[in-house]
Amino acid sequence: MQGTIAIGESACNFFIINNIVNNLERGSMGGHCMEFTLGSNSKAPGALQVADWIRDRIRRGRMVPGQRLVEVEIIRQTGASRAKVREAFQRLEVEGLVEIEEYRGASVRDAGIDEVRQIYHCRAALEGLCAAEFIANASDDQREELMEIQRQLDECVEKHIPEQFGRLNLAWHRKLIEGAGNEVAASLLERLHVPIHRLMFESFYSTDRLSAANADHHRVIAAIKANDPVRANAEMQAHISAGLGVLSMLHEEVLA
Predict the structure, then answer these.
(1) Distance of alpha carbon 210 from alpha carbon 157, whole angstroms
(2) pLDDT in tens, 240-254
(3) Which residues, 6+ apart, have CB-to-CB distance to 13 below 8 Å?
(4) C-alpha–C-alpha distance, residues 199 and 134, integer Å
(5) Is 104 helix (H, G, I), strand (E, B) or coil?
């Protein structure tokens, strides 16, 4: 399926989105592209499955910001009914991934740098809260699981494996959020990450950036080990803000 990408600011945003890091989001399919088995004996997928299928392609760059989502093509590729495809579009519109316009249909939503900044500001506050609440609410198993993920992140930095670092980074943040036990914060954070897609850890994480991000993690963990929620909150907010700083720098480079 071919789509048209707008020029100007949207093109600039597309470049940014292709070069920034999302510290949490990866597909619910475990990083693998979901494929439906077609055939007379296969069950037609529902709206939730079609939404997963589209979402995964957006994250992988197979569907790009500004691209129109053609119903007939998605029906052909997934085997879903027109009603289920339209329901999937509506689900993705609520998430912020898809934009539906009257008479024009659905398209992949673009996320500008201003929106990205707002998302990161909200994330910093919420993840800081989760880091603080992890200290009070996390189980011994959750603490040990967090430390094990960190050990694996250290190995990725040592061997410079950015893609694996990205997957583990997701797990590290999710473990903190899970251990905090704050379901409202977790739900809000899940929504905040959705619009940022097609993120390439290889281009964002140079050796220095890998090391800097991982050093941030160690400062958060040190605060957790010290049972210092105020410090954990501050260190996590600083970590998220550092990611935004790199995003802003990339944006300025593109404009230049």
Answers:
(1) 6
(2) 999 888 777 766 665
(3) 65, 110, 111, 112, 113
(4) 27
(5) coil
